[in-house]
Amino acid sequence: MGFLLGLLSALCLCAAFMRTASEPEDCARWDDLDTAVVHKDGHVVLAGMFPIHSKGVEQEHAYKQRPGRRKCRGFNLRVFRWSQAMIFFIEEINRNPALLPNITLGYRLYDTCGLEQLSVRTALSVISQPLKSWGGRCVSPSLPLIIGDSGSTLSMAISRVLNLNSVPLVSYFASCACLSDKRQFPYFFRTIPSDVNQADALARLVRHFGWTWVGTMGADDDYGRTGIDMFTAEVTKLGVCVAFRVIIPKLPSSESMREIVTIIRDSTATVIVAFAIEEDIHPVIQEIVRQNVTGKQWVASEAWVTSTLISTRENLPFLDGTIGFAIRRAEMPELKQFLETLNPLAEPHNPFAREFWEMQFQCSLNTTEPFASTTESTAYNNTCTGAERIQDTDSIYNDVSQLRVTYNMHKAVYSVAHALHNMLMCQHGGGGRGGARTLTSGCADIHTLQPWQIVQYLKEVSYTNLFGDVVHFDANGDPVGSYDIINWQKNGDGSVKYVTVGRFDSSLPLQQQLVFSQRDIVWHGAHREVPVSVCSETCPTGYRKASRTGQPVCCYDCVLCAEGTISNSTGKHSHRPDPSNGTDK
């Protein structure tokens, strides 16, 4: 035993000597993150996390050699556009002499593949990268802050890890109301409204149209389950009953999809409210089409109401008339020009450019670049030259007509930039917002910035952006709950047209929050009349309600009144608007 301990000590000493002798002056991590990264240096480097791929490929480990780089599949053009937009916004800020003067922002963008494990590991990698020496100390050029991730469940996992070091997370698409809990997520901010606003707005919309019998559907995650639960709680207060509640599994099978659609098909509820991201609801809609289920009025959450994956020509006969709430959009013509300049041959630093190019043009690039191994490759018969033009294609990548999540990304990047700008003004004697120092202990140093310091500056961010919107965070790190009401209508060519028929703004007085134009809405089946979704029709004069044992209060029989008594029933079902639940302009 003594010999073994001595040998081990000698080996450790030798290893330490070899490391010291060969170690560079700059600090370095002992391990590298096994995911592709898009990066560019700067005085301050912003980290962004995106599920550019929807799934990770499981690999077998023999534990005889170091595991290879994790491969991912399911390249998402829409999410890739979000990542490119972050680059565009950072470069836009760098060109603006009035914002962060003499400071160049860089970036490190990571693909999390939609995996909780990889998201957490990426976050740990971001906050533990001492790469440069400053004044004899190892410091990181990366800002102790992360922009991301898109999903609520992923953001919750990341936030809990970042809490350990007080590192803020600014999300552009995580809307679960649970993230407003400052006891659990004290350093979480977001530029998308909390779903507590959407649940309230959806409940009021449903009640306004007289739908008292609705089905609900949610994804099996924090976003879906919490969203449906909040909606149910709010709509029940308004006298609406829930006919069914189905949960979409994260690993859908043919059998589970058949079961869900059978429930939808057989229910007497004609209105269905669905809280799910597009990837989760997609297999359900495929089964809806397969079973030819029509006659249902869909009410969509913001995660899929403008999804091009769902709103296809093939799906329109089953989903036309869909109505729902969408996050606010913005017009960014300059972004389209930037997106269309991407070329994998000109940008070898972008490890996702090749896969994007091959997917966009359905061809294979002849290249030996190392980033080709980061994903499961798809073989195409045609060969790409690299001279193809994105301008000649039409896809969700360069379609800038519905920039909603992208607009949230704009708010996230600019909010961080304004927080840093206020910090710099404090350094140069200008004080924080309002001319006063933000930190009680004095001004922060950009080279030694601590996480808790940037949190304080983020809390005080307030600016009017290029689109005229005031951007700031409330005490929970949330923005104002503001949505467009979107209605799916059919274009002349058979495609889907997203028509804005109203809005919701939680910052306005109650009677003014929900406003829409009912005459502009086209319902399922191209009808102009509001569809009816009730369990039991209103009893006619001379009849009274008789509850059905074991069924919701919305379900009853109409029983003839006893001799000598009368009923004050209004008669037929009414769709007269309730002013407290919305205004028809």
Account of the 3D structure:
The structure is a single chain. With 585 residues, the protein is α/β, with parallel strands linked by helices. It is built from 14 helices and 25 strands. It has helices spanning 2-22, 77-94, 116-126, 152-162, 195-208, 222-237, 254-266, 278-290, 316-319, 333-339, 353-361, 405-427, 451-459, 510-513; strands spanning 37-40, 44-50, 53-56, 72-75, 105-111, 132-134, 137-139, 142-147, 169-171, 188-190, 213-219, 241-248, 271-275, 297-300, 323-327, 364-365, 383-384, 462-464, 470-472, 482-490, 496-505, 514-516, 543-547, 556-560, 583-584. The strands form seven sheets. Strands 12-11-13-14-15-20-21-22-25 form a nine-stranded mixed beta sheet, sandwiched between helices. It has a six-stranded mixed beta sheet with strand order 1-5-2-8-9-10, sandwiched between helices.
